[in-house]
Write a structure and sequence with these properties.
351 residues, alpha/beta, Isopropylmalate Dehydrogenase, 12 strands, globular
Length: 351
């Protein structure tokens, strides 16, 4: 693929570490060779953060339209001109307002094909709430915009040696047991399996499925969901040609490194999957929204208000999110070529 991939970037909460990790990422020599970065923000916002961090040898190429982007520089689409009150390290209405302006502009550009992939900086899920954004997070918004709200989006955490998908996402723990079903688990397994094939080039993925209850229910002694809901989903997945195994007790599975034997792990709820994932891969892990026709990644950390503006945030996860988005785009393009014109078998002529 000769043309560089256009990476759209939403700025996240302007009072968090989003702009810091973005600027630090593109301070890295050679990033302009990997992609054409296009940040949706404002010149004043970027300038404020650059000065707060004491970074002098960096600037964005300021543009108004995406087609003005310079492929050799980090670009910034100047979305708003008004003066903004910054309160680094605090959750404010302004933090949510400008995060949403940036995110919506980036999503619209992605839908219109003006950018190839989307990388999102962290938002505050509380202050971004509005009539335009009545969602529990990026994943749910993206599912609505790009999949019609059909619950197709799969939160998939990625690192070098671990991929963790979630059956349920941003819901209270007390709702988890009632939210899982054989059909939902099977749908997540199908999405995960297809993503591993299409996005990562794994021909026959092996997927481990975690149980819901301690010790995976201990044959019904500690809850019935593992045998009555999860196990039937695994069996149906196998009948459909998906190599799914389990359910495994979550504690021992990660404790004894069993995850290394599989291409991916499907967890039943948010913290069951993310606590071990972040313990294993906190600085270079990323979040990928699988199951959609578009590609979106993000770092695996939040706004980090406690260190905002102090030049202490690590950009490693955000940089990895850029790398991964580019890799995923290329993998999908390769898969599309391979599957568009399957080789037709030619009958052997016998003399």
């Amino acid at each position: 693929m000769s043309e560089k991939i256009r990476v759209g970037i939403s700025q996240g909460d302007i009072n968090g570490v989003g702009l810091e990790v973005i600027i630090k990422t593109f301070l890295e020599p050679g990033m302009e060779e990997i992609c054409t970065p296009i940040l949706f923000s404002s010149q004043k916002t970027a300038s404020y953060h650059r000065k707060a961090l004491g970074i002098e040898d960096f600037s964005f190429n300021i543009i108004r339209e995406i087609d003005q982007a310079n492929p050799k520089k980090p670009n910034l689409v100047n979305l708003y001109e008004e003066e903004v009150t910054f309160e680094l390290g605090k959750s404010t209405p302004a933090g949510g307002k400008y995060a949403l302006i940036s995110f919506e502009a980036a999503c619209n550009a992605l839908a219109a094909g003006k950018i190839d992939v989307l990388v999102t900086a962290p938002i505050n899920k509380h202050n971004i709430q509005s009539p335009e954004f009545n969602f529990k997070g990026h994943t749910e918004y993206l599912d609505q915009k790009f999949a019609g709200g059909n619950d197709d989006a799969l939160m998939l955490m990625l690192s070098d040696n671990l991929k963790v998908g979630l059956v349920t996402g941003h819901i209270p723990v007390e709702q988890v047991a009632a939210s899982i079903s054989t059909e939902k688990i099977l749908k997540r397994l199908s999405t995960l399996n297809q993503s591993l094939i299409r996005d990562f080039g794994i021909r026959k993925p092996r997927i481990a499925v975690l149980g819901l209850n301690p010790h995976a229910g201990d044959n019904g002694t500690i809850g019935s969901q593992d045998t009555q809901i999860i196990l039937p989903a695994i069996e149906k997945a196998k009948q459909a040609g998906i190599m799914a195994f389990g359910p495994y007790p979550a504690d021992g599975f990660f404790g004894n490194s069993s995850y290394l034997k599989f291409d991916a792990v499907l967890a039943m709820y948010h913290d069951q999957g993310l606590i071990p994932f972040k313990t294993i891969a906190f600085h270079n892990g990323i979040n990928y929204t699988a199951g959609l026709p578009v590609i979106r990644t993000s770092p695996d950390h939040g706004t980090a208000y406690d260190i905002a503006g102090k030049n202490q945030a690590s950009e490693e996860s955000f940089r990895q999110a850029i790398y991964t988005a580019v890799d995923l785009f290329r993998k999908r393009a390769e898969y599309a070529v391979l599957t568009a014109h399957p080789l037709k078998s030619t009958p052997i002529r016998r003399e």
